[in-house]
């Protein structure tokens, strides 16, 4: 993704091994067909560590539809 600062590199993966997630009742489980079927990872530098993005909840989808800003390139923002 191109941003105003550092660009983001994003990959999506299938996680075969299941591990417990701390989620509420409304969030779909990891690995099942739906919004959390894939796991997403992001970094600003291909040679540094990748950060696993959290599972998507219904609230994330509602909020994402409201976003009208450019990405900053700062993963802490």
Structural overview:
By secondary structure, the chain is mainly beta. It has one domain (1-77). The chain has one helix spanning 58-64, and strands at 9-13, 39-43, 51-52. Strands 1-2-3 form a three-stranded antiparallel beta sheet, with no helix packed on it. The protein is globular, with a radius of gyration of 14 Å. The model has no long low-confidence stretch (mean pLDDT 83).
Observed structural traits:
1 helix, 3 strands, three-stranded antiparallel beta sheet, 77 residues, mainly beta
Compute the average pLDDT. Answer: 83
Strand order of the largest sheet: 1-2-3
Order of helices and strands: EEEH
Given the C-alpha coordinates, what overall shape results? globular
Unreliable parts: none
Secondary-structure content class: mainly beta
Q: What separation lies between the terminal Cα atoms?
A: 15 Å
Count of folded domains: 1
The largest sheet is:
3 strands, antiparallel
Q: Count of helical segments?
A: 1
Q: How would you briefly describe this protein structure?
A:
Helix content is 9%, strand content 16%. The protein contains one helix and three strands, in the order E-E-E-H.
Describe the secondary structure blueprint for this structure.
Blueprint: E1 9-13, E2 39-43, E3 51-52, H1 58-64
Antiparallel strand pairs: 1-2, 2-3
């Amino acid at each position: 993704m191109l941003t105003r600062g550092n660009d983001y590199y994003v990959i999506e993966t299938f996680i075969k091994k299941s591990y417990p997630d701390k989620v509420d009742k409304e969030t779909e489980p990891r690995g099942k067909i739906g919004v959390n079927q894939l796991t997403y990872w992001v970094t600003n530098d291909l040679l540094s560590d990748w950060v696993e993005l959290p599972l998507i909840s219904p609230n994330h989808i509602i909020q994402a539809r409201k976003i009208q800003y450019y990405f900053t390139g700062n993963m802490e923002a």
